[in-house]
Amino acid sequence: MSEQCVPPASVVLVSGGSRGLGLSIVEDLVGSGLRVATFARSITPELAKLADAEPDRVLAGAVDITDRAATTEFVRTAESSLGPIDALVNNAAIGQDSLHVHTSPDRLANLIEVNLTAPLLLTRLVLRRMLAGGRRGRIVNVTSICARRGFPGLVAYSATKGGMEAATRSLARELRDRALVNCVAPGFFASEMSAVLGTDQLGAIVRRTPTGHLTEPAEVLPVIRMLLLADTNIHGQTITIDGAAGS
Amino acid sequence: MNSDGSAAPISALNRDQLRELLTQVLAAQGKDLPAGESAELAAIGFRSLDFSELALRVEDEIGRELNFDAPGLRTIRTVGDVLDFLTELQDPA
């Protein structure tokens, strides 16, 4: 590794790590030997079990990502118990399944707050501590195929994911060689948010996916792991993981 | 003005009033609403955005928004389903 490379992550903050892809990310990173702090609105039994089994390497907290004070406190606690955070995975997000004209203004504002404003603030918080400590680090933003491809019922959600991808490109320019910032953009999962898609809609997505199947969380993990650990020059990019459905 | 001629918004439209608005939405597209409630929406050419138009017209009449998620919409198959769904949406409980 050259002197200019950003070192592999050692202490990772993962937002929304209590279930679904977020929990899989936490499990995968812990399995790769990293220390992981994660928070979600509530701690699931699965996450509690993991934290209990690895108390020196996993910290789990029940924190609402829109609660700025609680989020800041959790980051401080995480650094006290696990060490300085040198990587962030912005995974927490809420889904949408409503036509724009029938989405209430409050719901629209909530989507933007949770999926765009909160991760930008968390990124700012982690970067400020990272830069102040003279450390280099890595950020992975979990976006979505719908940041760049249209789907009915996902207007505000798509806007937030597109916003995170745009922010990623500008962050890469700002941070230069201090932190590598990238996005992974999964296609629709067979579970989780895809549960709200209609059978016809899911069937249509599968039909136009050259690999013939919807993306599984396990297929996203190696890419996140690579962006956090591998010696690469990947910066400001979005890696789409959708079986070429959007290509 | 509401369809009943009064100036103040009414709290909810009854089934006949909903059916009248549905008739208007279809008529604007040169389509007729069959008698009864069993007609399939696909057969009469009533699509999801037609439902949006109808819901927004209902909102105009009752003076409040009826926001809703898409999954409920996907279960609608017949004219009766449309009237049921809009009736439930208007229920403040």
Q: Any idea of the CATH topology of chain A?
A: Rossmann fold
Outline type of chain A: globular
- Average pLDDT rating of chain B: 90
Number of strands of chain B: 0
Strand order of the largest sheet of chain A: 3-2-1-4-5-6-7
Classify the beta-strand content of chain A into a percent band: 15-25%
> How far apart are the termini of chain B?
26 Å
Strand pairing plus helix content of chain A: what structural class? alpha/beta
Helix content of chain B: 40-55%
Silhouette of chain B: globular
The whole-number mean of residue pLDDT values of chain A reads 94
> How many H/I helices of chain A?
7
Q: What's the architecture of chain A in CATH terms? A: 3-Layer(aba) Sandwich
Main β sheet profile of chain B: none
Unreliable sequence segments of chain B: none
Largest sheet of chain A: 7 strands, parallel
Strand content of chain B: under 5%
Computed over alpha carbons, the radius of gyration of chain A is 17 Å
Quote the distance from N terminus to C terminus of chain A.
33 Å
Helix content of chain A: 40-55%
Structure write-up:
- The complex is a heterodimer of chains A (247) and B (93).
- The mean pLDDT of chain A is 94.
- By secondary structure, chain A is an alpha/beta fold.
- In chain A, strand 4, helix 4 and strand 5 form a beta-alpha-beta unit.
- Chain A has a seven-stranded parallel beta sheet with strand order 3-2-1-4-5-6-7, with helices on both faces.
- The relative contact order of chain A is 0.15.
- In chain A, 43% of the residues lie in helices and 15% in strands.
- With 93 residues, chain B is an all-alpha fold.
- Chain B has a domain of 58 residues.
- Chain B is 53% helix and 0% strand.
- The longest helix of chain B has 15 residues.
- At the A-B interface, loops of A face helix 3 and helix 4 of B.
